[in-house]
Amino acid sequence: MTAPRLDPERHAAFQIVALANRISSGASRVYLRDFGVGVMEWRVLALVALRPGITAGEISQMSGVDKSPVSRAVQALTQRGLMRAQGDAGDNRRLLLSLAPAGETLHDRIIQVSQARDEQLLAGLSAAERAALFQLFRRLAANLAAAEAAAGVQSARLDPI
After folding, report:
1. What is the DSSP code string of 109-134?
2. What is residue 10's DSSP assignment?
């Protein structure tokens, strides 16, 4: 008996990953061309702007990305003077991240482009469809967490701050 074959058109994970890769790749090209940062650096800037004092580990958990690319992005942004990393007085192993003034300025420029790209992605969807889409994202994240727990794998936290 032959094992079933993957049908990319009907495989949720395949479709989600393919779409996410296309979104990230396109965003990275735009952000590199227009602002000199890639999509990982942008994600770090955006999350640090949203929650000053966040750590690289927390960014990694929230975004579902391994800690090493997040740490490289933090290092690059810090070296460019866009971000500050300060030791946590309560835990010397943790670095608390904040945006430097130049990072705030860059964030404020990129967010306009990011929001416009997001609006283009959602074009043609009604307010109700958009709400349903985000509800489905939350349900998929919950299903993923349950599936990974059942498999004995720790799930990354993908919910918003």
Report:
1. HHHHHHHHHHHHHTTT--HHHHHHHH
2. G
Pure H helices in 36-156: 39-50, 56-63, 67-79, 101-121, 127-150
Reading the block at residue 8, the tokens are 């990319």
**Residue 67 CB contacts under 8 Å (≥ 6 apart), including other chains:** 56, 57, 60
Give the Cβ contact number of residue 45 at 10 Å: 25
Evaluate the CA torsion angle 124, 132, 119, 156 in order and state its sign: negative
What 3-state DSSP class applies to 154?
Answer: coil
Q: Could you give the angle at the alpha carbon of 13 between the alpha carbons of 117 and 71, nearest 5°? A: 65
Query: What are the two backbone dihedrals, phi and then psi, of residue 98, each rounded to the nearest 5 degrees?
Result: -145, 160
pLDDT at 22: 96
Tokens 């919950």 found at:
142
Q: Which two tokens stand for residue 78?
A: 């810090």
Q: Tell me: the pLDDT tens digits for 66-105?
A: 999 999 999 999 999 999 999 888 887 889 999 999 999 9
Q: Cβ distance 74 to 97 under 8 Å?
A: yes
Do residues 85 and 97 touch, judged by C-beta distance below 8 A?
A: yes
Which amino acid, one-letter code, is at 105? T
